DNA sequence: TGCTTTAGTTGTTTTTTGCAACTAATATTG
DNA sequence: CAATATTAGTTGCAAAAAACAACTAAAGCA
């Protein structure tokens, strides 16, 4: 069995799955995002309940994809921390999208949702939406996917 | 080994991963979305290159989560097709988010990106962004995640 | 009726995961 | 500064999941 890889599908969604299409990868990123962008190995093991060998592997992958970087906690020290890169931070809308989606269809209404506030005024953010170039909200039926090549 | 499940993490992102946190699930959804919302078993096997047993399992899961429904192609017939539900369609922003994210950081610029057009005027849609209640684009540093319970 | 298509199921092999124990280097504390 | 604790992994093993191929049964079609 060859390691699961979707390069036969040229679609960028498939290619994204190659990189972050595994639950633990997304959860590592979630953890970093909610922690302000940095995290330590053992802290992630504890908070996520992920196996150490799996975390090791996922972090390596995320590092080679330049989604996180590994650097000393303090200048010159040798204790490391993992830090989201700009590329990693740009997955935040997707993370928020998952949170909002789940909460919209949440099966257990006892638990209250995870909300996201604008730090400036403490107002909740808008639900993630697809917008036309001039700002109209678009539904699935309004959107035409176009693959330019081939 | 117990089946991977993230219910110990109450976070809605983790709970989403329980449902669609596996690459093939997302790719099945992508395929349905790009095909207008419906698809047949064999067609998915061929287009995705997914193993039949795995597709069977993923579709069952998506069905129990009411992300897709299974129904006869024509009234009364017994040939089935899988169809995105409203809950499934609401993952489209996330799908678009993945496509845009990958294309923004695309390592192989030869292949051109997957773009999404507004059917009304054929203009490309906006990049997916997080917006404040009054419509300002927010970056990660502007957003405060708040978990209401506990 | 006979051939083809569809939508799976079953069995086997290979990979990946989860878990626990271990390690080596670095920090902390008395 | 010696002893202890913490950190960031690595290794080995058992179990689960994935890939692959072959098979099946019902439906559709000619």
UniProtKB/TrEMBL annotation, chains A, B:
Origin: domain of life: Bacteria
Keywords, alphabetical: DNA-binding, Transcription, Transcription regulation
Record flagged with keyword Transcription: yes
InterPro entries registered for this protein in UniProt: HTH_HxlR, WH-like_DNA-bd_sf, WH_DNA-bd_sf
Molecular-function annotations in GO: DNA binding
Domain HTH hxlR-type, first and last residues per copy: 11-110
Annotated segments matching region Disordered: 130-150
Keyword ATP-binding: no
PANTHER family: TRANSCRIPTIONAL REGULATOR, MARR FAMILY, TRANSCRIPTIONAL REGULATORY PROTEIN
Protein name: DNA-binding HxlR family transcriptional regulator
Taxonomic source organism: Simiduia aestuariiviva
